[in-house]
Design a protein that fits this description.
The chain is mainly α. The chain contains five helices and two strands; from the N terminus they run ββααααα.
Length: 122
């Protein structure tokens, strides 16, 4: 299993798919990385040489925000929303859906115990 920026990526899978195991790298970004480095998309991750792994590491660290930095950035964004008492921050604090989803039928079991949501008045 090759290790890229501290993450073990699966070696038996195609390189495009293996790179998506890194937090912050989706399918499109993985294809973009492979194209920049001039590697084959159909290549298996096991076939990466040590030199290729170093090049992938450098590219990810220099050009993209991934893994720990991205997680920290996301957490700080959520903390900021909570601290300024925005609507989205309130929803984060209560553990309810943030982006306008319904709560009457769905999102009941998503985050643990049942949460009361104001219902219809009769």
């Amino acid at each position: 299993m090759p290790r890229v920026i501290g993450i073990d990526i699966p070696g038996k899978k195609r390189l495009v798919v293996s790179l998506t195991y890194i937090y912050g790298v989706g399918r499109t970004r993985a294809e973009e990385i492979i194209e920049k480095l001039g590697l084959s998309q159909d290549m298996r991750a096991d076939k990466l040489s040590g030199e290729d792994i170093v090049r992938v590491n450098e590219l990810l660290q220099n050009d993209y925000v991934v893994e720990g930095d991205l997680r920290r950035q996301t957490q700080s964004d959520i903390k900021r929303l909570i601290s300024i008492h925005s609507y989205r921050g309130l929803r984060h604090r209560l553990g309810l859906p943030v982006r306008g989803q319904r709560t009457q039928k769905n999102s009941r079991t998503r985050k643990g115990k049942r949460k009361t949501v104001a219902g219809k008045k009769k």
